[in-house]
């Protein structure tokens, strides 16, 4: 294991290298917050992919790429005379201590849920914190992730189902309303009711300890794997998918499904 000074030195070497690149490399020298932002989003998605794959070497690599962006934004902030990486680290450390009074203070919290509730209450009290319970949910989040975070934050102040089993009545109610909307043919109403159904299903997942983003991504990957099997089988037969009947494709789908269960 590395000692703490060695870890600090390793981070310092990256900062020193970035200082040099910022002066001597034309690409690094011209970067701004705005130009880096799309790359940052891409790097985070690549990290997420590595995490989903549980590929440890790739996780290490992608963490480095994300860390570089953190250092880069801090470097730009320093050049503007606004903040540097030390200010970023100090602000983070202060926040961690303030938001964990059950560890660094005299507040009592035995469960993760109690910690989350305390966290939200502290954020509302902070001078520069959120002025409303849902104020900290980024507007740019993907809709599924945003719905989950909205529900979490509302639950942390007590706005939640008393029993998780109660949510299924809401899911069934919303499903019925979708069917009624589809029957009516009103496109706006259909969209609105599908949104309500999805929100209810996400709520059900949350109440049963499932992260819907992770669950949906696993299903996406499963579908891709099974569909790729259908396509590969068609190619092996010298046929196009459009030439296969639905029954033939279903049989190959079930074949792929069976091979998964036998692993």
Q: Quick one: biggest sheet?
A: none
How much is the radius of gyration in Å? 25 Å
Helicity, as a percent range: over 70%
What's the number of extended β-strand segments?
Answer: 0
Poorly predicted runs are none
Shape: extended
Order of helices and strands: HHHHHHHHHHHH
**Spatial gap, N to C terminus:** 36 Å
What's the number of helices?
12
Structure description:
It contains 12 helices and no strands. The protein has helices spanning 4-24, 26-30, 33-53, 56-79, 85-98, 101-104, 112-125, 143-155, 167-184, 187-207, 212-236, 246-261.
Write the layout of secondary structure elements.
Layout: H1 4-24, H2 26-30, H3 33-53, H4 56-79, H5 85-98, H6 101-104, H7 112-125, H8 143-155, H9 167-184, H10 187-207, H11 212-236, H12 246-261
Helix pairs in contact: 1-4, 3-4, 8-10, 9-10, 11-12
Relevant terms:
single chain, 263 residues, 12 helices, 0% strand
Give a short synopsis of this structure.
The chain has 263 residues and is an all-alpha fold. The chain is built from 12 helices and no strands. It has helices at 4-24, 26-30, 33-53, 56-79, 85-98, 101-104, 112-125, 143-155, 167-184, 187-207, 212-236, 246-261.
């Amino acid at each position: 294991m590395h000692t703490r000074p060695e870890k600090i030195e390793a981070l310092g070497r990256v900062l020193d290298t970035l200082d040099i690149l910022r002066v001597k490399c034309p690409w690094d020298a011209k970067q701004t917050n705005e130009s880096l932002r799309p790359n940052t989003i891409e790097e985070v998605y690549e990290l997420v992919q590595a995490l989903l794959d549980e590929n440890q070497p790739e996780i290490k690599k992608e963490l480095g790429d994300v860390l570089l962006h953190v250092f880069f934004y801090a470097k730009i902030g320093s050049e503007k005379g606004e903040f540097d990486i030390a200010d970023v680290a100090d602000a983070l450390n202060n926040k961690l201590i303030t938001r964990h009074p059950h560890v660094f203070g005299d507040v009592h919290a035995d469960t993760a849920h109690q910690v989350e509730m305390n966290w939200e209450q502290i954020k509302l009290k902070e001078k520069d914190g959120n002025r409303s319970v849902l104020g900290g949910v980024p507007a740019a989040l993907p809709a599924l992730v945003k719905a989950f975070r909205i529900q979490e934050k509302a639950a942390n102040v007590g706005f939640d189902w008393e029993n998780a089993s109660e949510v299924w009545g809401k899911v069934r109610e919303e499903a019925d309303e979708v069917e009624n909307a589809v029957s009516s043919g009103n496109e706006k109403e259909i969209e609105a009711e599908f949104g309500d159904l999805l929100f209810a299903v996400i709520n059900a997942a949350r109440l049963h300890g499932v992260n819907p983003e992770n669950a949906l991504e696993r299903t996406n990957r499963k579908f891709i794997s099974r569909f790729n099997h259908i396509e590969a089988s068609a190619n092996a037969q010298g046929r196009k998918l459009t030439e296969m009947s639905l029954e033939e494709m279903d049989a190959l789908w079930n074949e792929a499904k069976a091979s998964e269960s036998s692993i």
